[in-house]
Amino acid sequence: MWPDGVGRLVLPTTDSTMKEAARIAASSALPQWILALDQTAAHGRRGRAWSMPKGNFAATLLMFPTEPPALVALRSFVAALALHDTFVTVTGRPDGFTLKWPNDVLLNGGKVAGILLERGARHLSIGIGINLVDAPMPEQVEEGATPPVSLLSETGARVTPEEFLDILAPNFARWEAQFTTYGFAPIRTEWLARAAKIGQPIRARTVTEEHHGTFETVDAGGNLVLKTAKGQLSIPAADVYF
User: Fold this and answer.
1) Residues 173 and 216 placed together within one structural domain of the fold
2) Domain span at residue 220?
3) pLDDT tens for residues 63-75?
4) Domain final residue, candidates 193, 212, 231
5) Do 107 and 15 fall within a single domain?
6) Tens-digit pLDDT profile for residues 12-61
7) Pairing assessment for the beta strands 104-107 and 97-100 based on DSSP bridges
8) Separation between Cα atoms, residue 105 and residue 103, nearest integer Å
9) Total tally of structural domains belonging to the chain
10) CA-wise closest residue to 63 among 21, 115, 15, 35
11) Is 50 in the same domain as 100?
């Protein structure tokens, strides 16, 4: 059932659902999902291009949170849990889906979905891109990045963007209620239970440095915690490589 008090806007085409959210934020009073069946200027983290083949999923949830910025940013974990639940529902397969810090969903080790948060003066945009039916070619992604996969090729499940959104929206509302009622602690516990590469060696690349270590946990602030040769290290933002 679609969550109460949340709008639903489906666009045949737009430049970017994130840009659309920014345009309508000033005139909106309630949260709403914005789904585009085609995007002409989509982007991912750090301005990277995001491929949008026909039939894939591109949506942004426009919200108006009132918490401090550090808490608002933790909604990437809320979105990741909602995505995980939705993938399990549409495929009937609880195995194969894992969550990659800070903002990806993996399927059989490949990237099937990405999450992007952007803050405005009074709004938060949570952008979600999913390879429902097609994935970029390996040469289209950054060297060393997790290879992209599609839901269809890996599971045989075919779902339209509208159908996926109708399951995702109530799942997000449920986890959002958990977050606003009980805080980040239960969200963190559930995210860690689905996390990829816990206890295994990874690389975390920030803007200026690259760190090698064992992925120990995510702390109470959502930071990646690495066990390195120099001791424990807490990293607030980075690209992670396996």
Assistant:
1) no
2) 201-241
3) 999 999 999 999 9
4) 193
5) yes
6) 999 999 999 999 999 998 999 999 999 998 766 555 666 678 899 999 99
7) antiparallel
8) 7
9) 2
10) 21
11) yes
List the CATH number of the domain containing 51.
Answer: 3.30.930.10
In a domain, 21, yes or no: yes
The type of residue at 62 is L
> Does residue 2 sit within a domain?
no
Please identify which residue in the block is written with the tokens 């992925």: 215
Same domain for 234 and 149: no
Q: Is 174's pLDDT higher than 60?
A: yes
Long-range CB contacts (within 8 A, 24+) of 144-148: 144/241, 145/111, 145/239, 145/241, 146/100, 146/104, 146/106, 146/109, 146/110, 146/111, 146/241, 146/242, 147/109, 147/110, 147/111, 148/110, 148/111, 148/112
